[in-house]
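User: Hi! I'm working on a homework problem where we have to compare a predicted structure to a textbook description. Could you give me the structure for the chain below?
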Amino acid sequence: MNRFISNFLIIFLFNFCSCEKKVEKEETKIIYNVDEYLKMWFKDKESVKNVKIIDTFCIGERKRAEKDIQDNKLTYFISEFECEFIGMKKHLNKLNIDVKNYDKRHTFVSSFNRNCYQNLMQQEITKRLGQKKIDSLMIIAEEEFVINNPDSLYIRDGIDIRTKYKELLKK
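Assistant: Happy to help. Predicted structure tokens:
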């Protein structure tokens, strides 16, 4: 009986040790844009764990911005929902800076850079004009909006901005 058990154990151990464990190695998928990443994520959140991101969109946007900056084609981005939009457009156009409507997306996905073109333009405009100049133009645009639209409610940080310009509105 001992011999039977020992033979059985030898055969069992031999079979057990010789069995290959099939380990499925997950393939790394390369993603080039945020839309492709989001499709994968919505389909199966686990699928994005093994992803390598190459953000080609930002690479292209950066090249385009660098060329436009070199060609002196600057663009300032501001939401047209901002009351200062029209005033900023008027004042920056005088400085040969185009103004375009743009609402920044405040959400970001993984390693994708959003607003590459807009951010580079903003940095270049700030470098050339200085933040104080941009802030001054924004205040002038705000003042012009309030004067031209005295009946429009304009709330910023919980305060009606028209109260700031009471004296100008009386004229």
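For your comparison, note the following. The mean pLDDT is 80. Residues 131-148 form the longest helix (18 residues). Good luck with the assignment!
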